[in-house]
């Protein structure tokens, strides 16, 4: 039995050990209240202080100005795939979509049911191994927003920069790379992320939305899909997933303590460089993604011989390296290496990979 387990799962994914320990310490008695956050009213002053701290810390991490609201949506990023067209197309216009992988394809499919949608660009013909050049995108004349997915978790492709679409509101699914690097929120209309990949338990999405995009939903929109209901009720129109929200807040604080997003970016570069270098220099392994768009969060790799996949996974598991199986649509392996993954975990994986290659190459 390995003494330490490193979890390379894509999500729900590993969380920082310090945060898990804090949760454990506080579980039965939060801050001397004698009760657990699990048992706490969302309207109590205790929970309100948790929500306020989370708001303050995320605003600090991302330098969010006052004309942006923070919403917490149960239903995760998937709920947002419906909510975006329901909120932003009711007053007319076309939703433009750039499809670069499974998640943007899913969002595009859902939006097509709900409004007038245009496929502005896609790398489907390239098997999602790359990102279509901005100059090739065909935006609608009456574009209401441009939707894209910053990091495609399954194929492992990531945008390098924020695309420039002028005054058209940019809508971004940042689920699998939120808080992994700095970005300028002022360039966006809506940024959202499910917590389960990089900053908390499953089931919750954090949404940052510019004020002028709130209050535009149509009259038929269910109240739990309306940005305005969340904004007007501090995301407490219904009983929110309080424990997930609390843990997201602890992760924000942890991220600040680690030096913020610049530091997260440095570490992500260090982790992913080490893995890609290993893949590129050991001919036993390969990664098919266009180098400039290789994800720093999800690193897929293929073994020289697919027949060795099962042996690789079984031996990796024996060495405490789990959840390395690639998505069924892609095959091979995938190491998801979010903020909580340590260099110890990366070094353990690299040693195992080199040793496996030597024995089976
Ligand atoms: C996982 C994931 C989603 C879906 O998240 P849910 O929490 O299941 O709604 C959406 N987009 C991206 C990029 C993801 O990685």
Descriptive report:
There is one protein chain. The protein folds into two domains: 32-257, Type I PLP-dependent aspartate aminotransferase-like (Major domain) (Aspartate Aminotransferase, domain 2); 260-360, Aspartate Aminotransferase, domain 1, CATH 3.90.1150.10. It is globular, with a radius of gyration of 21 Å. The protein is α/β, with parallel strands linked by helices. The strands form four sheets. Strands 2-10-9-8-5-3-4 form a seven-stranded mixed beta sheet. The chain has a three-stranded antiparallel beta sheet with strand order 11-12-14, covered by helices on one side. The protein has a two-stranded parallel ribbon with strand order 1-13. A hairpin with a 4-residue loop joins strand 6 (151-152) and strand 7. It is 36% helix and 17% strand. The chain has helices spanning 17-26, 45-62, 76-88, 102-114, 195-198, 227-232, 242-257, 260-281, 309-318, 343-360, and strands at residues 6-7, 68-74, 94-99, 117-122, 143-149, 151-152, 157-158, 170-173, 190-194, 204-210, 285-286, 298-303, 321-322, 333-336. It starts with 5 loop residues before the first strand and ends with a helix.
Q: How would you write the strand order of the largest sheet?
A: 2-10-9-8-5-3-4
Number of domains: 2
Distinct small-molecule ligands in the complex: pyridoxal-5'-phosphate
The average pLDDT score comes to 97
**What structural class do the secondary elements suggest?**
alpha/beta
CATH superfamily of the largest domain: Type I PLP-dependent aspartate aminotransferase-like (Major domain)
Kindly report the CATH topology of the largest domain: Aspartate Aminotransferase, domain 2
Strand content: 15-25%
Largest sheet, described in full? 7 strands, mixed
Q: Rounded to an integer, what's the Rg over CA atoms?
A: 21 Å
Q: How many strands appear in the DSSP assignment?
A: 14
Tell me what the CATH architecture of the largest domain is.
3-Layer(aba) Sandwich
CA(first)-CA(last) distance:
25 Å
Query: How many helical elements?
Result: 10
CATH class of the largest domain: Alpha Beta
SSE run: EHHEHEHEEEEEEHEHHHEEHEEH
Low-confidence stretches: none
Helix share bin:
25-40%
Bulk shape: globular
